[in-house]
Amino acid sequence: MSMLEVAGLGHAYGGVDAVSDVSFVVEPGELVCIVGPSGCGKSTLLRCIAGLLPPTRGTVSLHGDRVVGVPSDLAVVFQDYSRSLLPWRTVAGNVEFPLRDRGLSTVERRSRVEEALSWVGLSEAAGKHPFELSGGMQQRVSIARALAYRPALMLMDEPFASVDAQTRADLEDLVLTVRASAGMTVLLVTHDIDESVYLADRVLVLSQSPATVVETLKVDLSSPRDQITTRGTDTFVRLRTEIARQIRR
Amino acid sequence: MPFVRKLAGLVGFLLLWEAAGRLGLVDARVLPPPSEVLVRFGLLFTDRGFVAGAVSTVLSWAIALLCATVLGVGVGLLLGSVPALRLITMPVIEFLRPLPSVALIPLAIALLGTQAQTKIVLGVFAATWPILLNTSYALGEVDPRLLETVRCFRVSRWRRLVGVTLPSIGPFVLTGVRISASIALIAIVGTEFLAGGSIGLGQYAFVQGTSGGRMDVVLAATVFAGLFGCLVNAGFLAVQRRWVSWGSVASSSGEVAA
Amino acid sequence: MRWWVRVAVLLGALVVWQLVSVLAANPYFPPPLRILEAAARLWPSAHFTADVLPSLARVFGGWAAASVVGVAFGVALGRSRALADYFEFVFTFLRTLPPPLLVPVFMLVFGISTEMEVVTIAFGTVWPVLLNAVDGARSVDPVLADTARVFRLSRARWIFGVVLPAAGPKIFAGLRVSLSIALILMVISEVVGATSGIGYQLGTAQGASDLPGMWAWIALISLLGYLLNRGLLAVEHRALAWSRP
């Protein structure tokens, strides 16, 4: 069974379509990127999938169950890390926070926090508060928080749009390694064509607003990927050109 | 829709109050129902004692607020721009500010009598602090990059003050004045309340309440003061939105930097 | 500011005050040493248990009650648009009523009693806390609210773990304003409607034309206001340590 199935999804704000008719599936263990021009309705689409926003038309199903409201085994990493972390809790406190309502024992919670923090390389910073960290580190905290939650599906909404180029490359590699070790299914939304090709197993290209899927591209790049060599391969260049052309259309 | 709800809330509140009085849940002599208070409110304006008191209170309030604004902004600018002065005055201010103006009432009455100058002086004392502190605080908050930018264009000192500094601190100062407006009213009414033989809303309510037991009159006078306060506050908010809309209009209560 | 600078400045101010008042020799402005003499006579005496403690209890009682009610109500109103709409007109109006005017009403209801003073203080201090709590609860970042929904936080943890801390800075600002209003109302209600308390003693000293005594009580009120404010700031500093980068 597919992990995620989106069928005929549409959303309109006050009669104006933001997302018109989107259908796709995500298989378990896949990393799928949705790429589209700025303001095309990507975030609206993601909010509908997360159950934060009821779609106007169509359905979203998470391993076969229709999504109504936020499902219990889904996590979201938002673009604004500084606004999605609790400033009054430490790094470990932030990661642990959503685990409290899942009925886990203290020991289990602690071990999950430690594991998630070591995956993102922040074990040392467990006792710090968000304001003491750089932007890239803060975003790693929110990734750790999502990992510790152990969702079946992790949604990422432009997760690296607010960090500098070097941090961005580091975080991209972090997502690839963490996803390999945690065996996570990831759906990532971005406006950056290169990023989508670099990260994804499959890229869905969205049109201008109202968004529809205009193309699905399989990314047949070998793993593990490397920031320098992967980006220089012919396949990479061919794919990014293809996507750029689709978006321009 | 929100307006309907707001109105429904008010009407519901009045109905509940009315019902409580009519059904004898509360003693109508202690808390007269709103219908009686409203009638009394209308009749207040034919009562010479009330009209004289209201005029005296409102005038004293206006004078006190004006003095406090001039004093608060002037001293605030001085303290905000001369660090040495701030250093030697701040400890004293820290002790004076928490001193409630009403504690000075006995002294002020002994010194100045029960005339209007007493309540004006105490109103000024109470109302100056928020303006003064907001002004000096705001000076520290002017974006240094903005000042540097302007200096790069070799703008004169005077125009830097008038064109950059004052507009930057405007919203803060106005918020201070708005807080002070209600504090001045409390201080003035409180002074009248405690100063026997004075003229004003506070003394009027005191006499009607304690010697006459006329709670309907007391409440009607309170309603008048409340409406006056609402109007003033709404006026300040309108001014803030109209003329200093670039600054974030501080919270509805405005106690942000208080 | 260093503490010794503070102390030095205050001592300097006292010396200047002493010199000026001795030179002026105005009976209304006794020199600080005379006030200190009166304070030494009045503060530690029977007045401490009979007047100072009751006054403090009234301030704390009224202020604490107002804080609890204000925060609870404020958070509820801040998170529910509909609820806030229903109460908007009523609260806008109630909060502008000058509390001293209501003292006769409270006096008739509760008589000359501690209840009257506590209710007066609570009524006057609840508004700044309430309105700031509403503001604070409303200001929870939408991204944070989405995050809480995504992680399916329980209602209690949403309120106590997210909304209350987020509203914390605003609530403390409201508490500070309330504290100064509490002192004002303590004095007013005690001068007219009490048989004990600092305000009552202030009125008594006035009646007896005991000017150094009056000044001593005024100084005590100022000192209490200063100390309470400092204490609150210390609590705030600890509670909101996370908000200072």
TrEMBL record, chain A:
Coiled-coil ranges per UniProt: none
Name of the protein: NitT/TauT family transport system ATP-binding protein
The record's listing under CDD domains reads: ABC_NrtD_SsuB_transporters
Going by the UniProt record, its keywords in alphabetical order are: ATP-binding, Nucleotide-binding, Transport
InterPro entries for this protein: AAA+_ATPase, ABC_transporter-like_ATP-bd, ABC_transporter-like_CS, ABC_transporter_ATP-bind, P-loop_NTPase
Pfam families registered for this protein in UniProt: ABC_tran
Q: What would you give as a GO molecular function for this chain, any one?
A: ATP hydrolysis activity
Q: Indicate the segments forming the ABC transporter domain, all copies.
A: 4-233
Among its keywords, does the record have Calcium? no
Q: Does the keyword Secreted apply?
A: no
From TrEMBL, chain B:
Q: Which domain of life is it from?
A: Bacteria
Q: Does the keyword Cytoplasm apply?
A: no
The protein, known as? NitT/TauT family transport system permease protein
> How does this protein lie in the membrane?
Multi-pass membrane protein
Annotated InterPro entries: MetI-like, MetI-like_sf
Q: What is its main location?
A: membrane
Q: Name one GO biological process term.
A: cellular response to sulfur starvation
- Please state the span of the N-terminal signal peptide per the UniProt entry: none
**Where, if anywhere, are coiled coils annotated?**
none
- Family matches, as SUPFAM superfamilies: MetI-like
Q: Which residues form the ABC transmembrane type-1 domain?
A: 54-236
Q: What's the family?
A: Belongs to the binding-protein-dependent transport system permease family.
What are the alphabetically sorted keywords of the record?
A: Cell membrane, Membrane, Transmembrane, Transmembrane helix, Transport
State the PANTHER family in the record: ALKANE SULFONATE ABC TRANSPORTER-RELATED, MEMBRANE SUBUNIT (PTHR30151), TAURINE TRANSPORT SYSTEM PERMEASE PROTEIN TAUC (PTHR30151:SF25)
Q: Which GO terms describe its cellular component?
A: plasma membrane
Q: What species was this sequence derived from?
A: Kutzneria buriramensis
Q: Where are the transmembrane segments?
A: 52-80, 183-206, 218-239
Indicate where this protein resides in the cell. Answer: Cell membrane
Automatic annotation (TrEMBL), chain C:
User: In terms of domain of life, where is this protein from?
Assistant: Bacteria
Please state every residue range assigned to the domain named ABC transmembrane type-1: 52-236
Output the GO biological process annotations, alphabetical, semicolon-separated.
transmembrane transport
Report the Pfam families cross-referenced here: BPD_transp_1 (PF00528)
InterPro entries found in the cross-reference section:
MetI-like, MetI-like_sf
Q: Does the keyword tRNA processing apply?
A: no
Q: How does it sit in the membrane?
A: Multi-pass membrane protein
Q: Where in the cell is it found?
A: Cell membrane
Q: Where are the transmembrane segments?
A: 60-80, 101-130, 179-202, 214-235
UniProt-listed SUPFAM superfamilies: MetI-like (SSF161098)
Q: Which CDD domains match?
A: TM_PBP2 (cd06261)
- Gene3D superfamilies membership: MetI-like (1.10.3720.10)
Keywords for this protein:
Cell membrane, Membrane, Transmembrane, Transmembrane helix, Transport
Please provide, in alphabetical order, the Gene Ontology terms of the cellular component aspect for this entry: plasma membrane
The family this protein is said to belong to: Belongs to the binding-protein-dependent transport system permease family.
The protein, known as? ABC-type nitrate/sulfonate/bicarbonate transport system permease component
Q: Which organism is it from?
A: Kutzneria buriramensis
Lineage summary: Bacteria, Bacillati, Actinomycetota, Actinomycetes, Pseudonocardiales
